[in-house]
Design goal:
It is a single chain. By secondary structure, this protein is mainly alpha-helical. It has one domain. It has four helices and two strands; from the N terminus they run αββααα. Strands 1-2 form a two-stranded antiparallel sheet. A hairpin with a 2-residue loop joins strand 1 and strand 2. The longest helix has 34 residues.
Length: 162
């Protein structure tokens, strides 16, 4: 005897665009709905969005990509810091001061970039592997999409905006 499966609801057509997913991630918001407040402290990110219910760790090992993003962002900041400090102090380089300042940047950058890299990676992951029908509260996600494009109701084919 085979168990019958209920068909999952179809994925809605209106979902956040890739640009919107990435922009929300860069700003540290939930990539799916854009809700703020995903951090309890600088390095403590909520396991899920309090607004739409998106689990930020969608599969096991999901945040290996976020660690890579954090490394890239931190090294970029450190490189900019090194180049600016050398350009500003040229031709007399105060080596000890430059070294201490850039060590401080090397310590602070990963801590500051960590939450942003997690949200940005989640946005990239959603762009590569779209949200499933039961991963989020679609009414909230679609409400954020409709609000973005100027619609106030979920039913856009009725012509009503009440």
């Amino acid at each position: 005897m085979t168990a019958q499966r209920r068909p999952l609801p179809a994925r809605p057509r209106k979902v956040p665009s890739t640009v919107r997913l990435l922009w929300r991630g860069v700003r540290g918001r939930c990539p799916a709905c854009g809700a703020r407040g995903q951090y309890r402290w600088l390095v403590n990110v909520s396991p899920s969005c309090h607004n739409c219910g998106l689990q930020f760790e969608r599969i096991e090992g999901h945040f290996v990509g976020a660690v890579g993003m954090n490394t890239i962002m931190s090294l970029g900041i450190l490189l900019i810091s090194l180049l600016v400090s050398i350009a500003v102090t040229y031709p007399d380089f105060p080596v000890l001061k430059l070294m201490l300042a850039n060590i401080a940047v090397a310590i602070a950058a990963p801590l500051v970039c960590y939450p942003l890299s997690r949200m940005l990676w989640t946005g990239i992951d959603i762009a590569m592997r779209p949200l499933g029908p039961d991963e989020v509260d679609w009414a909230v996600v679609l409400g954020s999409v409709n609000k973005w494009v100027g619609h106030t109701d979920m039913n856009t084919d009725s012509g009503n905006s009440e």
